[in-house]
Amino acid sequence: MPYTYRVSPEERLVYVSGEGEVELTESKETLLSIAAGSPSPTGFGLVFDLRNVTSTPYTETVHDIAAFLTEHFPSCPGMAIVVSGPDHYRLATTASLDIEEQGLPAGAFEDAIAAAGWLKSLISPIENV
Predict the structure, then answer these.
(1) pTM (2 decimals)?
(2) From CA 41, how far away is CA 23, in angstroms rounded?
């Protein structure tokens, strides 16, 4: 499986990791699983760690997945895309700009710790009742 993910309720983040060759269909299936998962990721930030992905998508695919993300995660407080290498960074920047045009904060990063820190700064703490 090219994708794995884990939900971190205490951080209010969902960490998605990709590895090897990935395709658009697999990406969408993984995102749908996350959206339908328990606990629900509503209000959770998404961290996509794609540093171990070996395939390079076409720009059209990047636009498609960005639209899919904003459609299926409209209440997400933000998304961070972590990549390595200049080609993947350029595509991650394209995706983050597409996502931001739809009103969701997004950023491209080469450092996973910086990405998670930036995303955590956008998330409101859970109110204790």
Answers:
(1) 0.90
(2) 23
Going along the chain from its start, the domains and CATH numbers come out as 3-122 (3.30.750.24)
The torsion of the CA quartet 113, 80, 120, 52, rounded to 10 degrees, works out to: -30
Backbone phi and psi for residue 92, each to the nearest 5 degrees, phi listed first: -65, -35
Residue-wise burial string across 36-72, b where 16 or more C-beta atoms lie within 10 A, e elsewhere: eeeeebeebbbbbbbbebeeebeeebbebbbeebbee
- In the block, tokens 């994708």 appear at 3
- Beta-sheet pairing, 13-20 with 3-8: antiparallel
Q: Residue type for 5, please?
A: Y
pLDDT tens, 79-118? 999 999 999 999 999 999 999 999 999 999 999 999 999 9
**One-letter amino acid identity for 56?**
T
